[in-house]
Specification:
The complex is a heterodimer of chains A (515) and B (361). Chain A is an alpha/beta fold. Chain A has helices spanning 2-11, 52-59, 84-89, 107-111, 125-138, 154-167, 184-199, 211-217, 240-248, 254-261, 308-316, 338-343, 353-357, 364-376, 384-397, 414-427, 444-459, 471-477, 500-508; strands at 12-23, 26-37, 41-45, 67-72, 92-95, 118-119, 122-123, 172-176, 203-207, 220-225, 228-234, 274-281, 285-292, 297-301, 323-328, 331-333, 346-349, 432-436, 463-467, 480-485, 488-494. In chain A, the strands form five sheets. Chain A has a six-stranded mixed sheet with strand order 5-8-9-3-10-11, sandwiched between helices. A six-stranded mixed sheet of chain A has the order 17-18-19-14-20-21, sandwiched between helices. Chain A has a four-stranded antiparallel sheet with strand order 13-12-15-16. The chains are: A alpha/beta (515), B mainly alpha (361).
Chain lengths: 515, 361
């Protein structure tokens, strides 16, 4: 029996014990344990703000833990990892979602950057290319070593980053959301690479939002919630629903309930909130007609780049429409800039939160009040007291997790940043609320909250435009959907036609659902 | 023990305040002055006028302070600097003197009303600011390049205004702005500088200009989508900067009761940018501190005085200034701060939330 235990111990390449880490107002990690064995793919799961990225950052030396120890197989003493370089030397490599290689160098140069084989002081190109060839072939990555990196697809670039890590004798490979910009086929390739590394006894930590992928590739799952360890499970023993329940910390049939509660729709007989006629903008969205009513959620769907964002941007004036007319509650209006649209009761949550949404260095308070303040104008500043009341109201209403009102928005997690932006727009009390991908990159729990919020806003009489890449999510919330293809609105679906199949067909162009 | 913990906490709070390092830098420079010139802080009254090194520093820093206020706004809104302010001072001085002299080279009485001259000078300066603002905000030319135009052309324009002469206005009333009001021991420029700082602070307090400028400086694209007109806000900041350069130009020309196009405000734009940086403001735009820039301006002027007191020749001054500035800016850099944080082990572990703040960012 003892011998058996011994081999189990041997397989452990990394163990983290009682890791604690605090940030102002937040305990990011509370006595977290994590164990990685060689030759396993270990998924690290949790909602946004659960502590996944903090744990990874402690492991890779970006943060220093307040207490706790990290042990690496073959070392007598607890390892001290003070910098990413130190982590690298101990055989811990990380491949991030955003590629951190040099796009204008060749594949081989990227593989050997900083450790180029040399002959008489000069780089030995021949050896470098030959070694690269061997390395890539060994991992079944088909790409020429002399090809420039930015000529390769994102997936291949990612694999090259992994190959580089592998060649640097890594024993622990951390893949942080590696699949979020890959298509299905590329994901498949990445998975087979992961399996091959597994056979070579590399321990892989896999961080992802996609449940399906966890079940497709991982052996073990560690779940974190609110900075604490929920547990470590064998993947085959943990049904999907239970995993979600563990991540969220509650029994999870809310998702199914949402729709039922809102099944009954009102009849729309009033003047539409928005009537667009032939509205369009050259080079981005072809002229379209559209009506939106009080109290309805209207979805916009289509493939990425189909013009769904461009359509709503034209309505909001984010990109000024160059032909057609727009009526708001029956009156023709001219929208030259977002402020015009805001004054007419519109609000727009943009697709790219980081680039167009958050004002990172400003506080939560300033981020929440800024749209209403812009609407009121420069010479009518709201008092500090009023601003604080507004802020508290939305922190409370949307359950925004922040250390204080005055915390810079940049230090909040993605989901909470998104809630702040939603709060910003609700504060302006809009009649037409445009939400472009409000749930992207956000954990399951917050996603559900946002979906519920959308429905209750519509119940209160708001007209909501909703864009999401997840058709399922839209089917749950929308009562009508516009379908777009190649910069053109090609159809509208409602009622019984609102099915995944019908939408796919309309997108593909087999059948127009104009009924 | 609790007391000690509390003390540490307060110490931490003080050292983390955004004005802490700028104030330390000012203190160090002042200390150097006291060591070199023991009577540095001595102030006496002769003929009803305040005398002393420190009075001189405060008086001489007035123009710089006025420029630094404008530079702070421009930097925050556009993430770039206006290097034309020194030349705009020359333009303003030239216009003011030319109106007062009615076109003559030297006059002993005003040929036109003083108020008219001041308004004309400020209008010219604001126009210069508007020109810069247009290039930066509307045409999207990088600030340094856009303002380079008036940086080079400004002094030429000033020469054109004065027909290539140095125009003298030998009227006592004109010397008021750069000198002393009869019966008042404090030099007038100090009042003007204080007035400008107070005025701009009030505007920032009573309108939403601060929020708008910071927002546009941090994320222009997001600011536009929440209804801010980032073009207009950048433009306004350049107009204000030009206008303030005009005020500084009038003060400078009043000091020498003449319009010397080649010397008024020379090299002052660099000092103004430095004042902003020394005040702990990010030259890349975003959040800003007016108080920081004011402290920065005093630091630079005190430094200049020190160097003069050490008998450094005027033409070598920039070298020594550069060295000191390198030291100060290094002290304030995040890299150095982190280094200090890592090398000072006292009471670092376990890390308290307040101490972890920097790491989160």
């Amino acid at each position: 029996m003892k011998a058996g235990e011994k081999t189990m111990e041997d397989r452990i390449v990394l163990s983290m014990r009682s890791i604690n880490k605090a940030f102002p107002g937040v305990k990011a990690l509370k006595n977290v344990d994590f164990t990685l064995r060689s030759g396993e793919i270990h998924a690290l799961m949790g909602e946004n703000g659960a502590g996944k990225s903090t744990l990874i950052k402690v492991l890779t030396g970006v943060y220093e833990a307040d207490s706790g120890e990290i042990r690496i197989a073959g070392e007598d003493r607890p390892a001290s990892i003070h910098s990413p370089q130190a982590a690298q030397e101990k055989g811990i490599s990380t491949v991030y979602q955003e590629i951190t290689l040099c796009p204008n160098l060749t594949v081989a140069e990227n593989l050997f950057l900083g450790r180029e084989p040399r002959k008489a002081g000069f780089i030995d190109w021949k050896t470098m290319n030959r070694k690269s060839e061997e390395l890539l072939t060994g991992l079944d990555i088909h790409v020429s070593p002399t090809k420039q990196l930015d000529g390769c697809s994102i997936a291949v670039q990612q694999m090259i980053a992994i190959a580089r890590a592998v060649d640097m004798q890594c024993r622990v490979l951390i893949l942080d959301e590696p699949t979020s910009s890959l298509d299905d086929e590329e994901v498949g390739k990445l998975f087979s690479l992961m399996r091959r590394l597994k056979e070579q006894n590399v321990g892989i930590i896999f961080v992802t939002h996609f449940l399906e992928q966890v079940y497709a590739v991982s052996d073990r799952i560690t779940v974190l919630r609110n900075g604490a360890l929920v547990g470590e499970f064998m993947t085959q023993d943990l049904p999907r629903l239970q995993l979600v329940a563990k991540m969220m910390g509650k029994d999870f049939d809310d998702l199914a309930e949402i729709r039922n509660a809102h099944e009954k729709r009102k009849e729309f007989d009033e003047t539409p909130v928005i009537e667009a006629e032939n509205l369009g903008r050259r080079g981005s969205i072809k002229p379209f007609d559209l009506t939106a009513h009080k109290g309805e959620v209207m979805g916009f769907t289509g493939l990425l780049g189909s013009g769904r964002s461009e359509l709503v941007r034209a309505i909001y004036g984010a990109d000024k429409a160059d032909n057609g007319t727009l009526k708001i509650k029956g009156k023709t209006v001219r929208i030259n800039a977002p402020l015009d649209a805001m004054k007419k009761g519109m609000a727009y949550l943009p697709e790219d939160r980081k680039r167009d949404g958050i004002i990172a260095d400003l506080s939560v308070r300033e981020n929440i009040i800024i749209a209403l303040q812009a609407k009121r104008g420069m010479f009518r500043p709201m008092s500090r007291k009023e601003a604080e009341e507004f802020t508290d109201r939305y922190i409370d209403l949307l359950q925004i997790k922040t250390a204080s009102r005055e915390t810079p928005l940049r230090s909040l997690s993605g989901g909470n940043q998104q809630k702040v932006i939603i709060g910003r727009w609700l504060l302006t009390n809009p009649e037409y609320l445009i939400l472009d991908e409000p749930t992207r990159g956000i954990d399951v729990g917050t996603k559900t909250e946002i979906q519920k919020l959308i429905l209750s806003l519509a119940d209160e009489g708001m007209s909501v435009a909703f864009i999401s890449s997840e058709v399922e999510e839209m089917l749950r919330t929308c009562s009508r959907m516009a379908v777009l293809r190649d910069g053109e609105k090609v159809g509208e679906l409602s009622g019984a036609d609102l099915t995944q199949e019908k939408i796919m067909k309309t997108i593909a162009g087999g059948e127009h659902g104009n009924g | 023990m609790v007391m000690a913990e509390n003390g540490k906490h307060y110490l931490k709070k003080i050292t983390e305040h955004h004005l802490f390092l700028p104030l330390v830098c000012l203190a160090v420079v002042l200390l150097a002055n006291v060591i070199k010139t023991p009577n540095f802080f001595q102030v006496s009254i002769n003929n009803g006028i305040l005398y002393g090194y420190v009075v001189d520093v405060v008086n001489r820093s007035s123009e710089l302070l006025i420029l630094a206020v404008g530079m702070t706004l421009v930097t925050a809104a556009s993430g770039g600097q206006d290097i034309s302010v020194g030349s705009v001072m020359a333009v303003s001085g030239a216009v003011c003197c030319q109106v007062l002299s009615g076109g003559q080279v030297s006059v002993n009485s005003f040929q036109n009303p003083f108020l008219l001259a001041v308004l004309a000078a400020l209008a010219a300066a604001a126009l210069c600011g508007a020109f810069n603002g247009l290039l930066v905000s509307k045409i999207n030319i990088p600030p340094m390049v856009a303002t380079l135009i008036l940086y080079t052309a400004g002094r030429g324009i000033a020469q054109l205004v004065t027909n290539g002469q140095i125009t003298y206005v030998r009227v006592d009333a004109y010397k008021l702005a750069g000198g002393y009001i009869p019966g008042c021991p404090v030099p007038t420029p100090v009042f003007i500088a204080i007035g400008i700082v107070v005025l701009v602070s009030i505007i920032l307090k009573k309108t939403t200009l601060r929020l708008y400028i910071e927002s546009v400086g941090i994320n222009g694209s997001a600011s536009r989508l929440v209804g801010l007109n980032s073009t207009r806000i950048k433009f306004i900041s350049y107009v204000i900067c030009g206008l303030l350069a005009g005020v500084a130009g009038i003060v400078a020309s009043s000091r020498i009761y003449s319009a010397d196009a080649n010397n008024i405000g020379i090299y002052l734009e660099m000092d103004a940018i430095l004042a902003v940086a020394l005040g702990g403001n990010l030259l890349g735009g975003g959040k800003f501190s007016l108080a920081g820039s004011v402290i920065g301006a005093f630091t630079i002027q005190a430094l200049t005085t020190t160097l003069y007191a050490m008998n450094v020749a005027a033409d070598q001054l920039p070298v020594y200034k550069a060295i000191v500035v390198i030291i100060i800016v290094t002290l304030q850099s995040p890299v150095f701060r982190k280094f200090i944080a890592l090398t000072l082990p006292a009471g670092r572990k376990p890390m308290k939330p307040a101490e972890a703040e920097e790491e989160v960012q």
